[in-house]
Write a structure and sequence with these properties.
The structure holds 2 protein chains of 2 kinds. Chain A is an all-beta fold. Chain A is built from no helices and 11 strands. By secondary structure, chain B is mainly beta. In chain B, strand 9 and strand 10 form a beta hairpin. The mean pLDDT of chain B is 94. Classes of the chains: A mainly beta, B mainly beta. At the A-B interface, strand 4, strand 5, strand 9 and strand 10 of A face strand 4, strand 5, strand 9 and strand 10 of B.
Chain lengths: 115, 113
């Protein structure tokens, strides 16, 4: 039973380019969360999605960042016109969100470096 | 504002002894708490959780204690093993429409052989 998959594992982008990070949830999980970890900090929530719906994007920067979870295919976190401050580890998590279940299972992360 | 705090950035323990990792929170509306373990260059791994209606949950060598009046929880690892050396994060969440987790800044545990 495969866990949460993220790709790429490492991504290098120059300032001004676009970054696309992909996440495939665990089988049977229909809820996806994105978190960001800056150096020496804990994980910070960015966005929570279900299939074709954004449920909570309260942690997303207002500009340049967007997320989607289409009916078919992985969830995508998109960062346009990247800046050096976007360099971080981006983690995706999934959960089944059945009643009484609140654990989230994380992928290995994508480490974004902006040069 | 930091709603979940881990005030000890690091902890060193001898193999076979007990490791106690602490976490404090400020929001009394949190419904559940979780502990994650993280190795470098990997994602967090879920360890154990506890609902706010309980004060203890145990799973093998791991036990989580919740003191709601003090807004404090702790993770006990007994006996500690060298493979337990990692960063441990506590996280908290509320029920309702969102399931977002608020993480502490982590405690680096080193278990000495």
């Amino acid at each position: 039973n495969a866990g949460v998959m993220q790709n790429p594992r490492h991504l290098v982008r120059r300032r001004g380019q676009e970054a696309r990070l992909r996440c495939s949830p665990m089988k049977g999980h229909s809820h996806v969360y994105w978190y960001r970890q800056l150096p020496e900090e804990g994980l910070k929530f960015m966005v929570y999605l279900q299939k074709e719906n954004i449920i909570d994007e309260s942690g997303m920067p207002k500009e340049r960042f967007s997320a989607e979870f289409p009916k078919e295919g992985p969830s995508i976190l998109r960062i346009q016109q990247v800046v050096r401050g976007d360099s971080a580890a981006y983690f995706c998590a999934s959960s089944p969100r059945t009643s009484g279940s609140y654990e989230q299972y994380f992928g290995p992360g994508t480490r974004l470096t902006v040069t | 504002d930091q709603q979940v705090k881990q005030n000890s950035p690091s902890l060193s323990v001898q193999e076979g002894r007990i490791s106690i990792l602490n976490c404090d929170y400020t929001n009394s509306m949190f419904d559940y708490f979780l502990w994650y373990k993280k190795y470098p260059a990997e994602g967090p791994t879920f360890l154990i959780s506890i609902s706010s209606i309980k004060d203890k949950n145990e799973d093998g060598r791991f036990t989580v204690f919740l003191n709601k009046s003090a807004k404090h929880l702790s993770l006990h690892i007994v006996p500690s093993q060298p493979g337990d050396s990692a960063v441990y994060f506590c996280a908290a969440g509320k029920g309702g429409a969102t399931n977002k987790l608020i993480f502490g800044t982590g405690t680096l545990l080193a278990v000495q052989p």
